[in-house]
Known about the structure:
By secondary structure, the chain is mainly β. The chain is about 5% helix and about 65% strand.
Amino acid sequence: MIKSIIVCALFSSMLILIVISRTSNAATTVLYEFHIREANVKRNETGVLKNGNSSEPELIITGTRTSTVILQSHKPNGSSCIYKETAVYNADKNGYRVKYNYSLVPFELDTRLHATTLKIATG
């Protein structure tokens, strides 16, 4: 049995996609799934009801959240950096667990033009 509802909304700078789905097979039922995407933030989450060997089903929620920020350099001729933070979380009968990953990479803007673009521009 598969029942699903898809809701997609676009606000000023935020895209929200919510998929409410009830998929049943012997061991697992997907209760909901949603994806939110903004200019610098992306979030995905899934809620699953798992029927294990116990008499009561277990609710498991998993998801990720990623955000990026461009950090401007205050030094003359200094390069900017991109700060990226990713959180992966899990909530189940053992509690809530989250793992963070941080990265800082130099921001490089490629100003070269592709050969095809140059051919089109020159005629």
